[in-house]
Specification:
The chain is α+β, with helices and mostly antiparallel strands. It contains 21 helices and 33 strands.
């Protein structure tokens, strides 16, 4: 009914129209020329009778304004329902005495609805509405604001809104940091600020944080004058917390399920919950989770010791100092239950259906500031793996029902990770035990040919135990076989396959074959599906296919070194003058692939040379190319006179910084040579008359070595073997005596027939020679050479004569 917008007419004391607004002409259709000078009741009457509201000539001048809804006739003849207000005016004779304002009834209803809406926003709406003047002070606020701040408008009107908040913080990105700065920005720039998230503590509830979603925009009049800023805010605290809990679960699932390291799982859990969900957290697990031992259900009434994996706090000045990371702690869940009152029931703010699952206690122990503690069991497969404890001090709210459910879900996800870590630890421990049992327990130390040192380091990452192996195999004639290999893959299968390969190589080495022949036979065995002798042999063969192997034979008598490779890296050779070389080996294929032959490379090594055999895990990693690793190894080994153990330690420290990504084996040997005085060699023609000469030479040499006690057996050995060569093989004949820890007698010829023991009948005149040799010597055997064969025997020397 604003006179600026409503239809307006001015009447004199007799009710005659003396003024007519353009809006009245628009509403009723009468132009001013037709309306002015006519009685209002006759002009607007819907019936021939006058409108009672407009009978102004009969009203006393002291009458007050009067309103009503009436029907009036439009100039076009149709009826209009309008809302009309008649107001008296102070006037002089003949002047304006009344003013009439009118508007359509429909327009009035819309106006009244708007007014009702505004009244509802001011008194009933849960949305906080506030108007700030150009100084940023509160000009008006609705009842919701009064309820939120805990005081009536009269107490904070005309003051900055910050005066009624203990603290406020804008937590949305790309917005001013606080409310006052935000209002100033809107006033100066005119830019509206939408979906602004504000965290604040009102004076009406100073112990709890609230989160509001707010919007602010500038108020201006019709000509653009700035009147202030209007802001509205919706309390989204519950929704914000629910979103935070959901985000926390997403982060927990994304982090704790990505590793099999129990310590990492504990750290990830602490990263997720501190400081948003809790001010501090401790994670304690059973020792068997870390070692892979079997888990047992907890016995009733028995407290269990746990190991602390994590202890995280947003403020270490108030956290309890009961145990540090890595220390053993008493069952935290049992301790929490023990803190209950005399009734025996836990002092819980919230109790779950399963009291053994989650315990929430309200406390303030020893001035630490902790006011709420939530202890949740880490359980999987109905077994307790550990306990996680959440503490609150700076966060004012105790753990509520939804947060207890969230803690239970976090504990369940962490328990799944710990269970997987336990399963992995158990398998890893089993594989490591198997692998170590298959590796050489004791490398021979009393070797004439070599001085030996070795290192084996399993991977410290989650790949599992690998199939790297090495071995040192004593061979006849003081020679030594060296082997190093690597099976593709990790885990129990790789370890078991490695054991089969190592056993096979050791068995083939006893046949005293050349390195290329040994690898050829090994390759053929791997290609046989029945290689392991089990129904599941095919899977095992697949594990072995692609395995690499390097086999080396060193002879300290000749100082000759022979080697062959099946896809393996060549050894590093360091001579006494510190020169480093890598032998140019023929690149044979890995085992089980076939297609290409293996080749033996043979060369002479000076006494005191170093031979380093290793697997690729020592010199190659994700961050280092193999060529760089080989250069680093060569640098470490360039001091061949250093003790071998020292060189091993330096190689490991230089090439294998933590963590170790793959298994690594290193076998380091220093060559020795037999003194010329320890070896005697003779060549004889294939003449039976020379057998006596051979016996005589052997007897004379044993006398020179003061080994007369072995003369009888040695004469018998030489006589029998030389005679057999002359009878069954082609000459010439070579006889060699080697005085080592045992007395070795070797008889070589150019034949390739293999002698063997046989049982002679009573009437047989021969066939007992090898039988007697086998009975009188420590051991005997045959090895084949490119030019023929060698039959050898060993006789035990008295320790004083060694």
């Amino acid at each position: 009914m604003d006179v600026v917008q409503a239809a307006t007419a001015v009447l004199d004391a007799d009710g005659v129209v003396i003024g007519w607004s353009p809006t009245a002409e628009e509403l009723l259709g009468y132009p001013a020329a037709e309306a002015v000078g006519r009685a209002a009741d006759e002009l607007l009457a819907a019936q021939p009778a006058a409108l009672p509201l407009l009978e102004v000539s009969q009203r006393p001048r002291e009458s007050v304004a009067r309103s009503d809804q009436v029907q009036v006739r439009h100039r076009a003849g149709h009826l209009l329902k309008v809302a009309m207000t008649l107001c008296p005016l102070a006037h002089t004779a003949g002047g304006a005495a009344w003013i009439i304002t009118a508007t359509g009834a429909e327009e009035l209803r819309r106006w009244e609805a708007h007014q009702s809406m505004l009244k509802g926003l001011a008194t009933q709406s849960p949305v906080n509405l506030c108007i700030f003047d150009t100084s940023g002070n509160v000009a008006w606020a609705n009842a919701a604001v009064e309820h939120s701040v805990g005081m009536p408008l009269a107490q904070f009107a005309g003051r900055p809104f910050e005066d009624i908040l203990l603290e406020d913080q804008v937590i949305s990105e790309d917005h001013p940091p606080n409310l006052q700065a935000l209002i100033s920005h809107v006033l100066s720039s005119g830019e509206p600020m939408l979906d602004v998230r504000i965290r604040a503590r009102p004076r009406g509830d100073p112990l709890h944080d609230y989160i509001w979603s707010c919007a602010y925009f500038r108020l201006q009049d019709a000509v653009g004058h700035i009147l202030g800023v209007c802001g509205y805010a919706v309390d989204i605290t519950s929704r914000h917390r629910a979103q935070q809990r959901l985000e926390l679960l997403v982060r927990a699932g994304g982090r704790m399920g990505m590793t099999l390291d129990a310590n990492r799982i504990a750290r990830d859990l602490a990263d997720v919950v501190v400081p948003g969900f809790a001010d501090a957290v401790t994670v304690d697990v059973l020792e068997s989770v870390l070692t892979g031992d079997d888990l047992e259900p907890k016995a009733a009434g028995r407290r269990t010791a746990f190991r602390r994996l994590e202890r995280r706090s947003g403020g270490d000045h108030w956290i309890e100092a009961d145990a540090a990371v890595g220390e053993v702690v008493e069952d935290p869940f049992a301790v929490a239950q023990a803190r209950s009152p005399a009734t025996g029931e836990p002092d819980q703010d919230e109790q779950s259906d399963d009291p053994s699952d989650v315990t929430v206690t309200a406390e303030d122990r020893g001035g630490t500031g902790v006011h709420s503690r939530l202890v949740a069991s880490l359980r999987a497969r109905d077994l307790t793996l550990g306990v996680v404890t959440f503490l609150r001090a700076a966060i004012p709210d105790p753990f509520d029902t939804e947060e207890v459910a969230l803690a239970r879900e976090l504990a369940a996800r962490a328990a799944l990770g710990f269970d997987n870590a336990h399963r992995y630890a158990r398998e890893h421990a089993a594989a490591l035990t198997l692998q170590r049992s298959l590796l050489p327990r004791h490398v021979p130390e009393q070797l004439t040919a070599l001085e030996v040192a070795h290192r084996y380091l399993p991977a410290s990452t989650g790949l599992g135990v690998g199939g790297d192996w090495f071995d040192v195999i004593p061979l006849p004639g003081t020679r030594v076989g060296l082997v190093v290999g690597d099976v593709v893959g990790h885990g129990l299968r790789a370890a078991a396959t490695m054991g089969r390969l190592r056993t096979t190589v050791r068995a083939l080495a006893q046949l005293d074959q050349a390195p290329d022949e040994l690898l050829t036979q090994l390759d053929a065995l791997i290609g046989d599906p029945s290689y392991d002798g089990e129904p599941t042999g095919e899977a095992s063969v697949e594990e072995a296919v692609g395995a690499t192997c390097l086999y080396v034979v060193y002879d300290p008598v000749t100082r000759r070194c022979a080697m062959a490779s099946a896809g393996h890296l060549p050894p590093t050779i360091v001579r006494a003058d510190s020169s480093v070389t890598f032998p140019d080996l023929a690149p044979g294929p890995p085992l089980g692939l076939g297609g290409l032959p293996f080749a033996t490379v043979e060369f002479e090594l000076p006494e005191g040379s170093l031979i380093a055999l290793f697997t690729d895990g020592l010199v190659e990693s994700r961050n280092r190319d193999v060529d760089i690793g080989l250069e680093q190894l060569a640098t470490v080994l360039a001091e061949p006179r250093r003790p071998l153990e020292d060189l091993c330690e330096r190689a490991v420290a230089t090439l294998l910084p933590e963590p170790i990504s793959d298994d690594a084996a290193l076998l380091l040997v220093r060559t020795r040579a037999l003194d010329e005085q320890q070896v005697a060699t003779w060549e004889f023609d294939a003449d039976p008359a020379l057998v006596a000469d051979a016996r005589t030479r052997v007897t004379d040499q044993l006398t020179a070595w003061r080994l007369e006690d072995l003369t009888f057996t040695s004469e018998l050995v030489v006589s029998e073997l030389v005679t057999n060569v002359i009878r069954y093989a082609a000459g010439p004949v070579s006889v060699r005596l080697i005085r080592d820890r045992n007395l070795i007698c070797e008889v070589s010829d150019t034949g390739h027939t293999s002698p063997h023991l046989r049982r002679a009948a009573h009437d047989d005149e021969g066939g007992r020679g090898l039988f007697l040799i086998a009975q009188l010597t420590l051991r005997w055997g045959t090895r084949y050479t490119p030019t023929g064969k060698t039959i050898w025997t060993e006789q035990l020397l008295h320790p004083a004569l060694q």
